[in-house]
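mind reviewing this stuff:

——
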Amino acid sequence: MGRILEVIVTSAEEAREAEAGGADRLELVRDLASGGLTPPVGVVQEVLESVRIPVRVMIREEPSMLAGPPSDVRKLRSSAAELSRLGIDGVVLGFIIGGRVDLEATRYILEAVDVPATFHRAFDEISDAAQAIEDLKEVPRIDRILTSGGPGSWLERRARLLRWAEQSRPKIEILVAAGLCPDVLAELPRDTLEFEFHVGRAARNPHQVWGKVDSQYVASLKNGHR
């Protein structure tokens, strides 16, 4: 069994390309240049009708890691509830406040859904990762944490990721944000490591936020040919 590969997509066309290339799961967003925002309901429906692999959907309305005032949080909760009823695999969200997980907003939003959730790369802006993991283990629905593993070389990051994985399991899996780091991308085809991988620009032609998902790029990542 090969590495589990999650690919960011913004449309049904990209979703089909990712699936054709061997992606195992999709993260659906709009406005990738802003880090990914909540896509329109119509796009979510179109993607779900276009592919058979699991689709997780971003819940985020501002290019910030803050949930915002109560009125914004209520809108996020409403969006999450509506999208969760469409048959998606899960939602993706990540809010911090004062350098820690915004537990109040996160819990409030996830109370409205009946699907799993990924806590996205807001995790990388938290000051105490170990404490954040303990906080997230107490939040129902969270089953993945997306993180690049922090600063340093891949060996340093990998050691950190393994430590976090040991702490977070069995409730939460670590999903590695590969970025464009060659050393990280080289790990994708190996079946001996303990992580799932998440790619955005690496699956796009060209490797820019405005590039398009390319099935050949996805296949290369999945099969280990960089």
Q: What stands out?
A: The helical segments are 12-20, 41-50, 70-84, 103-110, 129-137, 154-168, 182-185, 215-223.
